[in-house]
Specification:
Blueprint: E1 14-17, E2 29-32, E3 37-41, H1 46-51, H2 58-69, H3 94-99, E4 106-109, E5 124-125, E6 144-145, H4 150-161, E7 168-172, H5 174-181, H6 186-189, E8 194-195, E9 204-208, H7 211-216, H8 221-234, E10 246-248, H9 253-263, E11 272-278, E12 281-290, E13 293-298, H10 312-318
């Protein structure tokens, strides 16, 4: 599948950025100085540390396959991947492809060094031991960046600020989401559009699961490809544009009748349905007859005696509503 993202592709110049701060920098960021999208990983793995390039080895290869599936990269690049060699490297990695102008993106990491035993939490400690790092949001409860590693964040922000045409940053994994958004809860934030913190200007950012995590949990791959399809769309323009939607919540029985009359007739061509459950019970049902409107009909309300959202008399009337 060839990429149709003409606005995404720009004339590329090879660019490597290395911090002037005295750090043990084991790998360079690679990509175009005019890139419109940057992918930010967490830290170096064994292959990155050895070859001094980001996203090489199985992790980079899987990201490339997902970029192809999302229509961002050309399928012809997959032909250049050959069986893994030493350290799990393919003969021609994603990092090398970006360095050689094959894909118009920018690659970097939050930490430009390898954590001990590949454990990212080794870079974090208790707030009492973190020094100045304790002023930053924690990666997760009780895990604050060590003060000695704060220059990595400074380098990352300056590195991204140096990309004048940058429309979008993809935060790959919890650590990247924490560094760019101040919140490492990747399961909550993935696939949604946010504005970065720390950078000189707020840049649009979409978190996604890290490719290494997908190799460990394959069921996450399909939603990540969908997130990358959104990346492809969002990378073509700067700024955050929120779609206008009308969402009805906590409706009365009268509200449901009004919604039905306004949006369900004539009969919609498609109806999206989302059923939420808890402890084996249906807690609410969401209905969306189009992209611009939806209604959430609750059944359980833990704020009320008996946990029932509806008065008993309304239950009978509720189920008497005409079916679509």
């Amino acid at each position: 599948m060839e990429s149709t993202m003409s606005a995404f592709v720009t004339e590329m110049e090879p660019s490597c950025v290395q911090s002037e701060i005295p750090l043990k920098v084991s790998a360079l960021a690679v990509g175009s100085s005019t890139a419109r999208v940057a992918f930010v990983g967490e830290a170096l793995g064994a292959a990155e540390d050895l070859h001094e390039l980001p996203l090489v080895g199985p992790t980079g290869d899987e990201l490339l396959r997902m970029l192809v599936d999302a229509g961002i990269a050309s399928s012809s690049l997959l032909e250049q991947l050959k069986p893994y060699k030493q350290y799990g490297l393919s003969s021609y990695s994603l990092g090398q492809m970006v360095r050689d102008k094959k894909i118009p993106i920018y690659l970097t990491n939050v930490f430009q060094e390898r954590p001990p035993n590949n454990n990212i939490e080794a870079f974090f400690s208790k707030k009492a031991d973190a020094g100045a790092g304790g002023k930053h949001p924690p990666l997760r409860s009780g895990k604050y960046i060590q003060a000695s590693l704060l220059p990595h964040l400074t380098r990352l922000y300056e590195e991204l600020d140096a990309l004048p045409d940058l429309n979008l940053i993809v935060a790959m994994g919890a650590t990247a989401a924490w560094a760019l958004l101040g919140d490492g809860r990747i399961g909550r934030s993935r696939g949604t559009v946010h504005a970065t913190r720390g950078t000189a200007r707020a840049v649009k950012c979409i978190p996604m699961y890290h490719p290494a995590a997908i190799l460990r949990k394959w069921s996450w791959r399909s939603v990540t490809v969908a997130d990358l399809m959104k990346v492809k769309r969002e990378a073509t323009f700067p700024g955050i544009i929120r779609p206008k939607r009308e969402i009805w919540i906590e409706p009365t029985l009268f509200d449901i009748h009004v919604y039905e009359a306004r949006f369900m007739f004539p009969k919609p061509k498609m109806l999206s349905v989302d059923i939420e459950t808890k402890h084996g019970m249906i807690t609410c049902v969401g209905l969306a007859p189009n992209k611009a409107s939806a209604i959430c009909i609750p059944f359980v309300d833990e704020r009320k005696p008996g946990y029932s959202y509806w008065p008993s008399a309304d239950w009978i009337r509720l189920f008497g509503i005409r079916r679509v």
